[in-house]
Write a structure and sequence with these properties.
The complex is a heterodimer of chains A (40) and B (214). Chain A is an all-beta fold. Chain A has no helices and 4 strands. The chains are: A mainly beta (40), B alpha/beta (214).
């Protein structure tokens, strides 16, 4: 997974949208980085 | 230096690594850790200033939400999250129709749920501690709330699910990291961790395990 850090040391990378289904956490979608990297 | 995970611990020892000029990679999430001008500290977890724009983008771009109701716990965690979430809603033109503060340790959410029901928002964002989140979900289920419920990490934790039971089903939200994420590197990590320790990794285990040991 590609990650980048800003000047403060905060990480930016993909994360996830989850839903509780039948009492378990399921990942239903991948959420993109907030800021695209230069190579994107 | 790798770690620690807890914000309180990091706030104490990050001054020492800064003094020694040693890079420190931490799993802590408190917003102010990276707002003190310490050039030696780096996160592996999201602070609220990153996680709230993520859920705000999802509500705005994917669900086309026009209005939200916000319920939060009145402590440092809840206030920080509330302020960040409200700021992101305003930036996207989403109206916060109810902004409801609740108390840490609160047991009865009956009147809060009544207010949220009558608001008729497109979505409800819940930002409370685990026990309070579970009590809220149980009351919301009891009163038959049909508005989609969203949260950030805590609302979707296994502890909340265990405490709330069936009332947690259908809740959605942002999670920064998950052992179930459909990412090959994470799937491989989950497999190796489970084989070695005989249980599935929690989010804390995921944050604490150096990449070189996967």
């Amino acid at each position: 997974m590609e990650a980048s850090w800003d000047k403060n040391g905060d990480i930016d990378r993909a994360s996830f949208l989850a839903e509780i289904i039948d009492g378990k956490q399921k990942i239903v979608e991948t959420l993109p980085k907030l800021k695209s990297s230069k190579s994107d | 230096m790798l770690g620690p995970i807890y914000s309180g611990s990091v706030k104490v020892n990050m001054a020492l690594t800064q003094q020694a000029e040693v890079p420190q990679i931490v799993g802590a999430e408190a917003a102010d850790i990276t707002q003190q001008g310490n050039p030696w500290v780096f996160r592996t977890a999201f602070g609220q200033q990153i996680s709230m724009p993520k859920i705000a983008n999802y509500l705005h771009d994917r669900l086309k939400v026009k209005s939200v109701a916000l319920v939060w716990v009145n402590n440092d965690f809840g206030k920080g999250g509330r302020d960040s979430f409200a700021k992101e809603m305003k930036a996207r033109g989403i109206e916060v129709v109810v902004d409801l503060s609740t108390e840490q340790g609160q047991v009865d959410f009956g009147s809060d749920v009544i207010k949220l029901k009558s608001a008729k928002a497109d979505a409800i964002f819940v930002y409370c501690n685990e026990e309070e989140s579970a009590r809220f979900l149980i009351e919301a289920k009891r009163q038959g709330i049909t508005t989609p419920l969203f949260g950030e990490t805590t609302l979707l934790s296994q502890k909340v699910v265990d405490l709330a039971g069936p009332a947690a089903n259908g809740v959605r939200g942002h999670v920064g990291l998950s052992a179930d994420a459909p990412i090959p590197a994470i799937e491989e990590f989950t497999k190796k961790f489970t084989q070695r320790y005989n249980y599935r990794p929690t989010i804390t285990a995921s944050k604490a395990t150096p990449r070189s040991t996967w």
